[in-house]
Amino acid sequence: MDKIPQEYEIPLYLFHNGTNYETYRFLGCHKGTKDGNDGYYFRVWAAKARAVSLVGDFNEWNDNATPMQQLEKSEVWEAFVPGLKTFDTYKFSIVGCDGKRRCKADPYGTHMELKPQTGSKIFDIDGYKWKDEKWQKERQTKDVYNCPMNIYEVHLNSWKSCDDGVYYSYTKFAKTIIPYLKDMGYTHIEFMPLAEFPFDGSWGYQGIGYYAPTSRFGTPHEFMAMIDLFHQAGISVILDWVPAHFPRDEAGLFEFDGGASYEYADPKKRDHLAWGTRVFDYGRGEVKSFLISNALYWIEQYHIDGLRVDAVASMLYLDYDRRDGEWTPNVYGGHENLEAVQFLRDLNTAVFSRCPTALMIAEESTAWPMVTKPVTDGGLGFNFKWNMGWMNDMLKYMSYDPIDRAFHHDMLTFSFFYAFSENFVLPISHDEVVHGKASLVNKMYGGDVDKKFEQCKLFNAYMMAHPGKKLMFMGTEFAQFREWDYENGLEWFLVDEYENHRNYHAFSKRLNRFYLDHPQFWQKDFDWSGFSWIANDDFRQSIIIFRRFDADANEVIVLCNFVPVERKSYCFGVPYKGKYTEVFNSASPDGAPMTNGTVKSEDVPMHGFEQSVCIDIPPFACLYFEVKKDGEKKKTSAKKAEHSSDKKKSDKETEKE
């Protein structure tokens, strides 16, 4: 064993302790000098390995040509090789504790071969000249909770097919999609995983190169250039990140040194049985350093604005997707994975201590409490969580025959009771439109195509008005009929050739722009003072009416009719004496107001208010109204406005405030 150099002692100590959050600066491949020769140092953690050597193009993949030396008492192996150059390919040839030799990609490698090859490539990510200084400066003062967040989720391979049949490059993709995102009114783009993965059919969720942007679309610097272009255009970038599991690929983390290394040794914790993958050992310091360093690597080195953390529920529960006898309770007799809970808290603490404006979004599908509450308060420390309960309830509700919706009215209203318990993102993601699940428009009830379009527009307008940030998967904005297929591009021809899809696309654009222009829909997403019911109990007619407020107490009244029946002269209570103007109507071809114009309130008490209005409601329609109070000169502040649905004040009382 080689003696540990003094400068290695602190990085190694922190690495083994689980608190080296820049482990990628030590392990992996790095430029250096030894005995006056320029070259590269290679370091790899292989705790139980009997022997490790470096193989690659430079030594004709000879297992015996470049042996690595184990640093004393460190479980880390090192070699220095002079004369190498960028893009040279290499792997670690490891004789495991079981005596078998395995050829492994570098877990900290920054670049990899194009699939199906799995070798790591030498690439120094330093040296890219960023041009997003303005973005970074503005980001430091941005209140992510009270800003618009309308996320467009994409699978880079299949957003559009290139004319020549090859993948878009990172930069070509950015230059192509940015004008579209700006025109459509999206604020964020979320990528399905782009860390290197060998199998296209995994969509990136079974990766082997956690530190390497996939080479399908270019080099790491080209990946940086793509992020740079998005930032220069004012678009935030979110990346799907997968700390819940990894695949059994021979070149990956699977049994890296011949036994349990990155994964749990306990067979009752080790495997995701349904997915055929391995679970990270969250209690092991070296694994924690690997994962937390990786999260910060994407945020700090690649300027990613946030991470959507995949499959959090599978991390939190020891019995996730397991039957009785297939899991062991924790020390308190419960089913919580205490090590994973602590890992998530440490992860979020580390990220926010260094990047306070980052987005850490949990895909968490259970009722685990305080997911988006601070670690200091006992929470997991994320700042956003996908609202999977809302998504499941609403998609099921929209699949019911409208005749039966009256009997399921609670599915429509229940989400409002917990809407402010977490900082929610409302997701219609790729998982909901894949093979076997139907596209969004085809999830709507019935066989009548026009009725499906009407219901889908109603659903989207309702979703945009519901408290919480928004996410829609690519293709839903023009109501693609076919389910998403990762091997083929979206059906863009539908917009050009069919009026329904063309109108739906225009509707989505108008809806997105309405959202951007109206802080009532995003400024107080996580506060009861940003929402109030007018009527939530008209289950017989499947109608709900509610109010959304901004910080200055400006409001939009939202009315949704979930049945294909027109309601003439439908009356409901309103908070102020004044004029109420229809400003959005999902029943029109593109969402433009078309039914009511401006109506004046009458002195008829209803729904706890002194005033009411009567309007016409088209079938399957969501309507937005803005109000101008009689004699209004100045809006009251949000702090002074009473928004409680339990105590409605008269117009006179409100004006006195």
UniProtKB/TrEMBL annotation:
Reactions catalysed: Transfers a segment of a (1->4)-alpha-D-glucan chain to a primary hydroxy group in a similar glucan chain
All copies of domain Glycosyl hydrolase family 13 catalytic, residue ranges: 153-515
Entries under Pfam families matching the protein: Alpha-amylase, Alpha-amylase_C, CBM_48
Active site annotation, chain numbering: D310 (nucleophile), E363 (proton donor)
BP GO annotations: cellulose catabolic process; glycogen biosynthetic process
Enzyme Commission code(s) on record: 2.4.1.18
Keyword Electron transport tagged: no
Cross-referenced InterPro entries: A-amylase/branching_C, Branching_enzy, GH, GH13_cat_dom, GlgB, GlgB_N_E_set_prok, Glyco_hydro_13_N, Glyco_hydro_b
Keywords for this protein: Carbohydrate metabolism, Cellulose degradation, Glycogen biosynthesis, Glycogen metabolism, Glycosyltransferase, Polysaccharide degradation, Transferase
Subunit structure, interactors included: Monomer.
NCBIfam families: branching_enzym, PRK05402.1, PRK12313.1
Descriptive protein name: 1,4-alpha-glucan branching enzyme GlgB
Organism from which the protein derives: Ruminococcus albus
Lineage, opening ranks: Bacteria, Bacillati, Bacillota, Clostridia, Eubacteriales
